[in-house]
Specification:
Layout (H helix, E strand, L loop, with lengths): L2 H9 L4 E9 L5 E9 L2 E7 L8 H8 L5 E9 L5 E9 L2 E8 L6
Antiparallel strand pairs: 1-2, 2-3, 3-6, 4-5, 5-6
Helix pairs in contact: 1-2
Length: about 110
């Protein structure tokens, strides 16, 4: 999986937001986080320095922006051997932290 693949998941009309919340980072800035599902696959994202809820479509647009900076993009296997993904993208004045677990990786 890549950041671009993650954006395509966010654009999928079948993706469902299963949870959302606010957080504060160590500098006291407010951020937004959401969890999603697409079939049995689980995804999540958080957006730094925002006072508004950010939709999956808005995250997809930001992380695909030509001015984005992908700071980290790592597929991994968790302790149970299941594939996952994590990434951080800087775009439009925000950090977008992306994650996925229990995902199907095409061969």
């Amino acid at each position: 999986m890549t950041v671009d693949d993650f954006a395509e998941v966010l654009r999928n009309p079948a993706v469902q937001v299963t949870g959302q919340d606010w957080y504060h980072n160590q500098q006291g800035q407010r951020g937004y986080k959401a969890t999603l599902s697409l079939g049995s696959d689980q995804y999540w994202y958080s957006v730094s320095n925002t006072d508004i809820a950010i939709t999956p479509g808005q995250v997809a647009a930001a992380i695909l922006s030509p001015s984005r900076v992908v700071r980290r993009e790592n597929p991994y296997d968790n302790s149970s051997g299941e594939p996952g993904f994590e990434a951080t993208v800087w775009s439009e004045g925000h950090s977008y932290m992306l994650g996925a677990g229990n995902i199907k990786i095409p061969s």
